[in-house]
Amino acid sequence: GQSLEQPSEVTAVEGAIVQINCTYQTSGFYGLSWYQQHDGGAPTFLSYNALDGLEETGRFSSFLSRSDSYGYLLLQELQMKDSASYFCAVRTAGNKLTFGGGTRVLVKP
Amino acid sequence: DTEVTQTPKHLVMGMTNKKSLKCEQHMGHRAMYWYKQKAKKPPELMFVYSYEKLSINESVPSRFSPECPNSSLLNLHLHALQPEDSALYLCASSPTKRSSTDTQYFGPGTRLTVL
User: Fold this and answer.
1) Which residues of chain B does A50 touch, with a Cβ-Cβ cutoff of 8 Å?
2) Are B23 and B47 in contact (CB under 8 A)?
3) Which of B55, B105, B106 is the mutation pick for testing A, counting most A CBs within 10 A?
4) Of A49, A56, B65, B103, whose CB neighbour count within 10 A is largest?
5) Are A102 and B42 within 8 A, CB to CB?
């Protein structure tokens, strides 16, 4: 089976940088995805890492270390609209996604 | 068109009712998914369809019956549900499930309440 761990909640101020860590245990790993979900909304794809290293997409970056079964999502120049839940998800055979418990990010002015 | 649509947005049903959830995408995606999400929990995979054939059933009770009439449409038929089935039901699609860089795109969900 799969298990993922990420912090339950993070609070930061506007303009700050937040790092959300994700550790996983899985059989048959293809990659690590990150999704954002606002309250009452749908999960929105942010990034995907299949190989070790850093992927940068605007203010958001994602990192993966396959040897450590570890990844993180970095949110830079935080804005109020970034207040949401962020999920890491491991991708396994059959394009199955198994999600972590989610990290609620609260951005304060 | 880059979105997944779901109807209805909200559904309230009794335990003896039969209802259906509908999901549609026009992105040419050949894999479609149903997820269930309880409040403050992550989405949990229920079913995967690939090229209109059911490829994964995550041991979902038979009171949930999926159907994929064509490559753009995915239904979830509901019958004799229990109050604990109340949740947000999310549909997703991806180009295929074979690509190593496949990305799943989610619809807005149907919020289901079972009385």
Assistant:
1) 100-101
2) no
3) B106
4) A49
5) yes
Q: How far apart are CA A56 and CA A79, in angstroms?
A: 17
Angle, alpha carbons A82-A87-A92 (nearest 5°): 145
Q: What is the signed CA dihedral for A28, A30, A32, A37, rounded to 10 degrees?
A: -90
* Contact call for A45 and B55, based on CB within 8 A: no
* Contact between chains at B103 and A42 (C-beta distance less than 8 A): no
Q: What string of pLDDT tens digits covers the 115 residues of chain B?
A: 558 999 999 999 998 899 999 999 999 899 999 999 999 999 999 999 999 999 999 999 999 999 999 999 999 999 999 999 999 999 999 987 555 557 899 999 999 999 9
What is the C-alpha separation between B4 and B103, in angstroms, rounded?
13
CA B50 to chain CA centroid, nearest Å: 13
**Per-position DSSP letters for A31-77, written without gaps between them:** EEEEEEE-TTS--EEEEEESSSEEEEETTEEEEEETTTTEEEEEE-S
| Nearest-5° Cα angle at A30, A85 to B96 | 85
- Identify the CA nearest to A36 among candidates A76, A1, A83, A90: A83
Residue pairs spanning A and B at CB distance below 8 A: 57
Residues A99 and A87 sit within 8 Å (Cβ to Cβ):
yes
* Chain B: residue whose CA lies nearest to A5: B42
Of the candidates B43, B56, B106, which has its C-beta nearest A94's C-beta?
A: B56
